[in-house]
Design goal:
Elements (H helix, E strand, L loop, with lengths): L1 H12 L38 H4 L19 E4 L6 H9 L5 H7 L15 E4 L2
Antiparallel strand pairs: 1-2
Amino acid sequence: MVLVTVVMVWLSIGPSLSRKAAGPDPRSNRPPQEGTATSNNFSTSSLTVQSAEDNQSEPSDSTIYEQTEKIKTQKFHIVREGETLSEISRKYYDSANKWQKILDGNRNVIKDVNKLRPGTKLIIPE
């Protein structure tokens, strides 16, 4: 009974008998591949993860693509109590006279130009 217990403990924490989990071939000069896990000494089974390169029969596309267009970011403004389109325009465009630009970009949100509801999210066009 003691012998069986010792063997079970050794098998659960000892090195795996799996050839893949044992590590790279000592005769090979190649370093171990990235993405391949070796045997875990505290596990009863070994886990082997193959890299994407192992699963593909064709070489992967390593072409670097440059983006020709600049990514456009969108500015937003949350209306506060008592704010007007002119004040918001002054904040983003340094001119109170460009309030019409904000109105044009937010026709679906702004019902009355003279009564902006606090908490309304406005798009600030470029």
